Amino acid sequence: MSGSPPPPWQYALRGVQQTYTAPGAPPRRVLDVDALDVPAGALLAVVGPSGAGKSTLLRLLNFLEPPSAGALFFAGRPVPAAPPLSLVRRVTTVFQRPVMLTGSVWDNVAYGLRLRGLPAEPAVSAALERVGLAGLARQPAVRLSGGEAQRVALARALVLQPEVLLLDEPTANLDPYNVGVIEDLVRADQVERGTTVVLVTHNVFQARRMAGHAALLLGGRLIETGPAPQFFGRPADPRTAAFVRGEMVY
Question: Using CA atoms, how far apart are residues 94 and 150, in angstroms rounded to an integer?
Fold first, then answer.
């Protein structure tokens, strides 16, 4: 496929490849996607085992690096190799192990707003209330538990009201309570504001709970993508069927 795909796609990838090279080693292709469309306002879960290319895909969607080949479109427009700050700020990411900055919980959530020259209040207090951490606002962020830190990272992202929220294994190694809190917050934001969410996870159960659309990556290749009921209930590819049934050993 060629040309600029029109909205309602938030992202469209066409012939995208990502290849890394190291001194003395042959080139290593880690991502090779013929075509992928991410519907605007949808929650897309990208599943697959470790090393499947999921995090590399997320780096492209967050404009952290350009693809080695092919074209990436955002809201119907091609993304340049050096995207402008105005475009970069439409997307924010929550990582599996978020970095807590020096200072209080409140300072961490306010960080992005201050960088943009925006007032911190009342948005920061409302965000902390929403993630259930208003009582810890003045506590040093480095003293938080893993689940608390992940909720702070989510508040830090949501307070910016991004057009796109990218989640890289956001609940890995968290207890069931914090998993539930984070999943509920993400779903609520997606429904209330129409945020486009791309969730990268190896957890099929989480993907099934949250996704409106799903995609499977194996060895850097896109195996199958589609609406969640079809993807999980009637997969077209036997590899997808094996993965969602938990029969694929990796």
Answer: 8
Instruction: Specify the pairing of strand 77-78 against strand 69-74.
Output: antiparallel
What's the pLDDT tens digit per position in 145-169?
Answer: 988 999 999 999 999 999 999 999 9
Check: pTM over 0.85? Answer yes or no: yes
DSSP structure string for the chain: --S-PPTTEEEEEEEEEEEE--TTS--EEEEEEEEEEEETT-EEEEE--TTSSHHHHHHHHTTSS--SEEEEEETTEEPPSS--HHHHTTEEEE-SSPPPPSSBHHHHHHHHHHHTT---TTHHHHHHHHTT-GGGTTSBGGG--HHHHHHHHHHHHHTT--SEEEEESTTTT--HHHHHHHHHHHHHHHHHH--EEEEEES-HHHHHHH-SEEEEEETTEEEEEEEHHHHHHS-SSHHHHHHHTT----
